[in-house]
Design brief:
By secondary structure, the protein is α+β, with helices and mostly antiparallel strands. The chain has one domain. The chain is 25% helix and 17% strand. It is built from seven helices and 14 strands. The strands form four sheets. It has a five-stranded mixed β-sheet. A hairpin with a 2-residue loop joins strand 9 and strand 10. The protein is globular, with a radius of gyration of 23 Å.
């Protein structure tokens, strides 16, 4: 008697065909997933934009990126913390004692450890807390625009050219370039390698470096991979972004034989009463070729990595009088 059955060769052919089909399908699924993540990321920024304008309606100003007393070191709360009531996080905001300890986020570890979903891009690969011996933090993926390069002088109190400045609560009238032409926030990566407290530059009126290679002249200090891991902290390397270089620019820095793509901060905001803060904190994202950004008028745009450096810097200033095209 003859029995109908598959031969081994026929079975292998079918398996091979299925494998090829899966191979064709996986990239398509990944593209769909990334498109959804990018849309969710843009929606997060949209919510932040609404929160900024609700803060403006309630308080008459946008929040400062940090509020620091003159003449003494501090650990300032971030603008992200001040937006909590406008992001349906009023219960969390009420845990912050603004009256007694307005300049030390470390006094509220129960706040710093909380994950704020609106502050996290779904494409972030390091969506996890940073645990230290004394306190735990949660990272974020959206930094407020603090200008081109110079951030803050603790002696004079002067600040940078962005929409968010330490101790300065902006009104729409202060954004002379127009709300639609001024960067409010951009994507950043959690656990970003960075070099901080380099003490370079340590004087005022130092021009922004033109290239990543030129930035390396200002390195030194302390290296770690903890940038953008504390949404509660007002330091630029934690909750800010600057337009020194276009999005996703690689700043190659070698330490112990390993090459990292770094940010640089000359002095952490609030840590010194004499040394100014300069920062090259680059916008970075996991989306292919672009970063999502929020403009001060609340609109969302996807900015290409290939944007001209002059245009990107122009978007980062609030009163540069530059002409910016689409």
């Amino acid at each position: 008697m003859r029995r109908n059955a598959f031969t081994l060769i026929e079975l292998l052919v079918v398996i091979a065909i299925i494998a090829v089909l899966i191979g064709l399908l996986v990239p398509a699924v990944q593209k769909v997933r990334e498109a959804a993540n990018r849309m969710k990321c843009a929606n997060n920024l949209k919510q932040i934009g609404v929160a900024l304008h609700n803060h403006l309606s309630a308080m008459g100003t946008f929040p400062a990126c940090a509020e620091m007393p003159m003449g003494q070191p501090s650990q300032p709360w971030s603008a992200h913390a001040r937006l909590l009531p406008y992001l349906e996080q009023d219960a969390l905001a009420k845990l912050i004692d603004w009256a007694t300890v307005p300049n030390d986020f470390r006094t509220r570890p129960n706040v710093s450890q909380m994950r704020i979903a609106t502050y996290m891009c779904p494409s972030e690969i390091n969506d996890k807390p940073r645990v230290t011996p004394n306190i735990s933090y949660y990272p974020l993926n959206y930094g407020f625009g603090q200008g081109t390069w110079f951030i803050y002088d603790p002696v004079s109190g002067s600040g940078g050219d962005g929409a968010f400045v330490p101790n300065k609560k902006m009104r729409p009238a202060d954004i002379l370039d127009g709300l639609s032409n001024t960067l409010a926030a951009a994507e950043v990566k959690a656990y970003q390698p960075n070099v901080w407290d380099t003490n370079k530059p340590n004087t005022l009126n130092i021009a922004a470096p033109a290239t990543p290679a030129a930035l390396l002249a200002f390195t030194g200090g302390t290296f770690d991979s903890n940038g953008h891991t504390e949404w509660v902290e007002g330091d630029v390397h934690e909750t800010g972004v600057t337009t020194t270089f276009p999005p996703n620019t690689n700043v190659a820095y070698t330490i112990n034989g390993v090459v990292y793509d770094i940010d640089v901060t000359s002095m952490r905001d609030g840590e010194s009463i004499t040394i100014p803060t300069y920062a090259a904190v680059t916008a970075r994202a996991y989306h292919s070729g672009v970063v999502n950004v929020l403009m001060m008028d609340g609109s969302i745009r996807a900015v290409s990595n290939n944007i001209a450096q002059a245009s990107w810097r122009a978007l980062g200033t609030r009163a540069g009088s530059e002409t910016i095209t689409d």
